[in-house]
From TrEMBL:
Keyword list, A-Z: Cell inner membrane, Cell membrane, Membrane, Protein transport, Transmembrane, Transmembrane helix, Transport
Main location: membrane
Name the record gives this protein: General secretion pathway protein K
Entry GO CC: plasma membrane
GO BP terms: protein secretion
Amino acid sequence: MRTFKAPPPGEAGYALLAAVAGLAVFGYIAFAMLAAERGGLSGTIAQGQRARLSAAADAGLVLAASNLAAGEFGREPWRIDGRPYHIRFEGFALTIRVEDERGKIRINQLSEDQVRLMFQSAGIDGRRLDEVTDAFLDWIDVDNDRRPYGAEAEDYAGLGYRPRNGPLRSLAELALIRGVDKPLHDRIAPAATLFFGGAGAFSPSTGHPLAIAVMTGTGMGSPQVIERQRAIAGQRVAIDLSEGESLTARPLTVRVLAEDGQRGRLERATIIEFPRGPGGGWEIRQEE
């Protein structure tokens, strides 16, 4: 586990500039070493491009952590409701989103009704809704008894894997469940979490709209969901953290998209936490 100290405001800019100053040097070294080892340039250029994009994404993570800690230094901190921040950074275009893990669907702790509502809120209906709901429940339960529209081990035999018969271990695993195609997975995964830390109730004020629909049991048409959708779209001011809430020990996903303007792009998601508060440094809990 890596721990990072949040720099004071007078030093934050220097830290970021130093981080990015290494991009050109690192790219050149990577280019030279790979060219010498492989004797070719096309692959080396691609590797160097990816290395620079990776370093830019790292810089975006540091920038997000610094801005989340800004409240400790008297500046307005970034919001944690998933809204995009667009930054031009040493020739790279960075799109950064910070998501509150407490504002997501706790996918391994859902009731059967919540599972059904999750798929329904994601746009599934009719017979398919019955099938994907039962298949999900069969995947996570401990037995091998198939529900009326579900799927157990024999239904996956030709695919080379078996149901988990236990909690999901990654959100990517959701795509293995019968009836969950890529579009459905891509609608649910950003709103779901396996990692939300210890104590802490669901947070509607920073929640993903789909998560609000499921965790409050109100569905996608509720006023609360519509208000959150408007806030994220910038049509109204988002609700700040309630008084008494803080970022201390609150898991946050930082999503960074780095683009170099030449069709090179890299996306990275990292879960971080401020275990002692934003002024006491931050730690990486999980990287994708």
